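Input structure tokens:
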């Protein structure tokens, strides 16, 4: 069958995903409006219980967004001014931003050239006497080597915090993202594998005391035992009822949608020319392919993006500037050769659950050497 060369291929097709569940979403909207239950309530509580179980954790606290989730973990754990927290140079800026917002200092570390993730060796090289934690990022839908990172953290006496904003449903040796560290922060930004109808986020953890403190901070410092008493100075970071209800609907489909992403990644591996190298996925990992990352090794990124533009195929770059080269972190010390090289090579191809084999073939043929 001839490939359709005229219809644009979207980088991310949220329209198709929402059409699949449109009737359920319409019902949620009607119920929310008719009951005027807009903040918190039963839908949020049910989602928190279901998502905690999905992640293999005992507690989940819904919050306003993924960046808040990371910041609340660090604040709840008692980190702050004078502390250093290791973060990978190859990540979205929110990872380092959360560290700065609690008054601590981000210390950047390089990443593995094949998985583009932080490792135990990188942690050991970056640690100083002031280091208290590692914010390990499960980037692009693949978890870090949880055993390797945990060992490095244990050896150095550091907390292992998971930035799981791109890893909903990902696993390492059968353990789910959100179950291997002190706590994990998730983002439900609409483009995520599990995305809300706007901003949203969550913290998951097996530490009951930490969960209570994070809940309190996110609810104006309110006491966990009294609605009218406030034990500390907190903030307002809550998950809306509409988002909780929509996320419950999507959570029931997440495994199927992640499976479809893995199939799309397999097609890319089969059809892409040798000049484009897909991200390495370790045998121990069950990746969920939040992004379709490839390295441009036989063509320049400008050549690749020009071909995609000419064929009406969407694309992105995640991320063209490593965190340590962003203006707020100018002057960061250390060698980040891998992160800097990858930033000039990587491009993100279309990736979503409704991508077809025909779509992937068309992308591959467009990018043929």
């Amino acid at each position: 069958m001839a490939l359709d060369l005229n219809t644009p291929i979207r980088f991310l097709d949220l329209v198709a995903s929402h059409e699949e569940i449109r009737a359920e979403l319409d019902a949620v909207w009607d119920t929310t409006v008719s009951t005027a239950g807009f903040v918190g309530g039963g839908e949020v509580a049910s989602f928190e219980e279901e998502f905690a179980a999905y992640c293999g954790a005992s507690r989940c606290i819904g919050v306003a967004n993924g960046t808040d989730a990371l910041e609340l973990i660090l604040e709840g754990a008692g980190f702050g001014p004078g502390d250093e927290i290791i973060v990978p140079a190859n990540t979205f800026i929110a990872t380092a931003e959360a560290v700065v917002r609690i008054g601590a200092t981000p210390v950047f570390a390089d990443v593995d050239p094949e998985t583009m993730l932080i490792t135990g060796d990188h942690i050991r090289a970056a640690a100083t006497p002031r280091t208290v934690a590692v914010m390990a990022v499960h980037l692009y839908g693949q978890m870090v080597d949880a055993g390797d990172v945990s060992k490095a953290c244990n050896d150095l006496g550091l907390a292992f915090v998971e930035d799981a904003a791109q890893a909903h449903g990902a696993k390492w040796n059968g353990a789910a993202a959100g179950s291997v560290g002190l706590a994990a922060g998730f983002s439900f930004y609409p483009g995520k594998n599990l995305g809300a109808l706007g901003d949203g986020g969550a913290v998951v953890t097996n530490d009951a005391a930490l969960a209570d403190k994070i809940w309190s901070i996110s609810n104006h410092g309110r006491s966990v035992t009294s609605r009218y008493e406030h034990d500390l100075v907190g903030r307002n970071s809550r998950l809306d009822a509409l988002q909780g209800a929509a996320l419950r609907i999507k959570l029931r489909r997440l495994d199927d949608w992640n499976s479809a992403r893995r199939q799309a990644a397999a097609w890319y591996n089969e059809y892409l020319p040798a000049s484009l190298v897909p991200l390495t996925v370790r045998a121990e990992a069950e990746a969920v392919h939040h992004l379709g990352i490839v390295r441009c090794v036989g063509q320049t990124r400008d050549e690749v993006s020009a071909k995609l533009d000419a064929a009406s195929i969407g694309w992105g770059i995640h991320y063209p500037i490593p965190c340590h080269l962003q203006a707020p972190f100018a002057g960061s010390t250390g060698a980040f050769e891998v992160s800097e090289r990858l930033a000039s090579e990587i491009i993100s191809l279309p990736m979503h659950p409704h991508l077809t084999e025909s779509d992937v073939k068309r992308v591959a043929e467009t990018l043929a050497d």
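DSSP finds 13 helices and 13 strands in the chain. Residues 85 and 289 are 27 Å apart (CA to CA).
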